[in-house]
Amino acid sequence: MYQQNHVGVYRSDDHGDTWCAIHKGLPYDYGFGLALDLDDGDACFVVPLQPEEFAYRATTGRFAVYRGGHRGWRASDRGLPATGAYLNVLREGMSNDTLKPGGVYVGTGTGQLFASRDGGRSWKAIAMYLPPILSVSAAVI
């Protein structure tokens, strides 16, 4: 089990009885959105948020999704906005599908929706001008 909240990213291997901090190596401890990596049970996807002046933006202008866990983190930003992207992700703003390789989806508070169809290695914008995205869900039909 994984969780990301106001004070970090955590993992539980005993059904939530105990939690271990795994956010070392992320640029910020704070964040909300989290998606699973179904290809690797030891990894998840998160978007750390910079809690600067209570703005809670994902970056200082470069948007990235991080894949990892207790073995470390790797930023993935190929195809994501690299400049002027002061974006945020809300609590339910990330999801994954059950395909192989796994798809990952992230929506922003400013209406952009990004998808990765290769397990987070690259990203593509699939919608740019939506209202704030409060929740993202993925289903295979």
Protein described:
The chain has 141 residues and is an all-beta fold. 0% of the residues lie in helices and 33% in strands. It contains no helices and 11 strands. The chain has a 4-stranded antiparallel sheet, with no helix packed on it. A 4-stranded antiparallel sheet has the order 8-9-10-11, with no helix packed on it. Strand 10 and strand 11 (124-127) form a beta hairpin. It is globular and about 40 Å long.
Summed up:
This protein is mainly beta. It has strands spanning 2-5, 8-11, 20-21, 31-36, 44-48, 65-69, 72-76, 94-96, 104-107, 113-116, 124-127. The chain is globular.
Low-confidence runs of at least 5 consecutive residues: none
Radius of gyration (CA) equals 14 Å
Average residue pLDDT: 91
The major sheet is characterized as: 4 strands, antiparallel
- What portion of the residues fall into strands of 2 or more residues? 25-35%
The number of helices is: 0
Percentage of residues assigned to helices: under 10%
Label the overall shape.
Answer: globular
N-to-C SSE series? EEEEEEEEEEE
Terminal residue distance: 25 Å
Q: How many distinct beta strands?
A: 11
What topology emerges from the helices and strands here?
Blueprint: E1 2-5, E2 8-11, E3 20-21, E4 31-36, E5 44-48, E6 65-69, E7 72-76, E8 94-96, E9 104-107, E10 113-116, E11 124-127
Antiparallel strand pairs: 1-2, 2-3, 4-5, 5-6, 6-7, 8-9, 9-10, 10-11
